[in-house]
Amino acid sequence: MANVVSEGAQERGTRTLRAVGALEAIAVDQGSPERVHRALEQALVFAGAAFVAVYTPGQDGELLCLVESAGVPRTLYGLRDSYPRAGRSPVAEAHRAGRPVSMGPAELAEHAQARRVPSRDFHLVALPVHNGGGCLLAVSESPAGFNTDDRTCLELISEAVAVTAPAALAEGGELPPGAFSLAMDTGRVRVGDELLDLFGLDPVEFDGRVETLLGMTVPEDLPSLMSVVEADHMSIGDRELEFRVLQPTGPPKWLRLSGRLLPGGEGHPARLVGTVADASTLRSDVTDVARVQRLATALATAVTVRDVGNAVVAALRRPLRADRIALAELESDRLVVTVLDPPEPEVWPELWRTEWRGEWPDAPVRAMPTLAAALREGRARIWPAGSPLERSLAEVGPGGLAVLPLPAGNRMAGACLIGWDAPHDFGTDERALLTACAGLAGQALVRARAFDAEHELVGMLQRQLLPRRLPRLPGAVAVARYLPSTAGLELGGDWYDVIPLPDNHVALIIGDVQGHSAGAATLMGQMRTALRAYAVEGHPPDVVVAHANRLLMDMESDLFATCAYVDIDLEEGSAWCVRAGHLPPVLRYPDGRTEIAEAEGGPPLGVITRADFPMGPLRLPPGTVIALVTDGLVETPGTDIDEGMDRLAGRLAEAAPADLGLVADALLGDAPRSDDVALLLLRYDGMDLRPLRETWTVWRVPQAVGHARRFARRTLRSWGVTEDIDAVLLVVSELVTNALVHTDGRVRMDLTLINNRLRVAIADASPRSPVRPASIGWEATGGRGILLVEAVSATWGTLPVSGGKQVWAELVLGR
């Protein structure tokens, strides 16, 4: 025994020494922006923390604001991004007292500042950060919380973190040469002198507006840069990206931005602080001939009208230093604009804005006679500054306007308008470039228009075969996405379904039919319908898949299908998974870990008549996300599908599961689209209130109805039900009598109570459902039972189950 204790103490000492070594290695790199985050990660490794964060005083000194964190999302524990320094939160108390503050589940439940997640117990400790004037907060899900050695590691980490630099930037301290501090509410930015040199701006002339800096970026890089400088697109932590800025002469310059969003708290704006550094330069500019060749290459691979427009803009606007460019399709006497650069409506003519319909303007050609004449002539027209033009065109290019009709055979497919604000000199080479680009773009536009029309038809047909909306589930949230392939125009065979089942079960199904054709899409619809029918009948998952396999074999189709079927018990958080040649589910647990389920699989559907489809168990703690995908998301030419599944698991681990829609969009962000893609996500949160259930087998004896009534009465009394018992017993009598008189075989009664809603269900071996009589004469001897059930129940109905049917009625007690 003494040896065991000695070994345990030695292990704890070794753990502390390892933590000291790791923190010393991190402290060496004082200039690294990741130093604080790397120090916090040591709490996850050496102190067993599930979440750790650093809070520092905000701009007004009244709030303690979150500046860095590591571990699972803080929202799982109800933690906030700022706390009042004078409040009663553990963070504020530790900061004021200068000593650690610890709380367990019982204390957190009573604490006014705690917002605990149901069914999740955790321990919390807050330690002051003396050298930084902040506080270190750590959370443990261990039943015993943090032990002595864990606290020693946390104290070492609180001494190692130093977050004064971001706070100084936010509070108006002196900026380093390449640093900046941006107020997210006003767009005012403070910058260092070296940063202005990178943008080619004079410090005396700089107006302090972020729009001035954004206006110097290459247009193609502006969306990614805007995603950083808009607060809605950022969360606490570091962000980094590269972008280009235009130069007075020569090619654009590459810059690298590293930034962090700091919360401002109530009454104070959030601030984006960071640095901008030179990231080398682009290669030298290319010739006009090379631009035409590059445009031809881009148009050869452009499949949609939007792709064509983007290729034309990329080829013309920056080389011509144009201020605006629009590409539009010609439909009858109207120009339907497909690409505007820049996209803001206020920079385009007022006439266009009055005709704005949806995302793009729909400008009438008759209101622009100069444009109509250019389209009739079918050749490029150029008007220098000062040319007499109608207002709707003069506002496009007051310093010069070029109109390029886009020919396609013997007709005009559309037009491209290019405008300059300052007077522009049109050289001979520039005119040749415009003419060459117009001819290429016209042919590409016709091809893209045909593709868009057919692809929209294909997508519409495909969507009609998939669920319009997913059901609302008790204790869970599900989202789905489907992306048709852009590699062709044939219908795909990917499908998904979410099927609510009795007793708070739900079935998740995802599948893929071999090939891309009308036959594959038809078979997909048949298989989805069959699986839903078998599932609703009440069969277990392996039987549902086996029935679908036998059906596909009987259809004698040349195609086969794969599918994954997961039956989830939303009350217990357990599930059974069946795979028929399909990819396994990917699970993301509440602590951020991901796992590819090791569920044994069977063969694809439609291959072997007598195939076995084993069921594999899954455990779903509250907060778990389960992901089902088709191979179009994880398989690309030249890569192994296992590598794709590992990448999917890694990206799912990085996602914040609070908003499943955003998670799904992130997972599909770089989908290859060479194949159809289906994605189905479900987050299991756990049911706040579980129903009460009891079951009674009704034997065919003379006193059967009386036995059923006594069982129902005893059950209701044990549940504390004292009202409307007579109505319940009347429903039990009528439904049990109906089953005994009109059916043979076993009869089972199920009682379910949740809140004040009672469900009485009688299952028998007959598939025939009771029929509500239209009218009953005074001399009739039967048929009144269903009318009585309907009169005293809130609702009633029947549903098929394996080997028969179930007649049910729901009563609201205590109305």
Automatic annotation (TrEMBL):
Protein's UniProt keywords contain Ligase: no
CDD domains with a match to the protein in the record: HATPase_RsbW-like, PAS
InterPro entries reported in the protein's UniProt record: Bact_Sigma-Reg (IPR052016), GAF (IPR003018), GAF-like_dom_sf (IPR029016), HATPase_C_sf (IPR036890), HATPase_dom (IPR003594), PAS (IPR000014), PAS-assoc_C (IPR000700), PAS-like_dom_sf (IPR035965)
Domain of life, per lineage: Bacteria
Keywords associated with the record: Hydrolase
SMART domains (UniProt xref): GAF, PP2C_SIG
Pfam short name (any one): PAS_3
Record domain PAC: where: 239-291
Full protein name: SpoIIE family protein phosphatase
Source organism (scientific name): Streptomyces coeruleofuscus
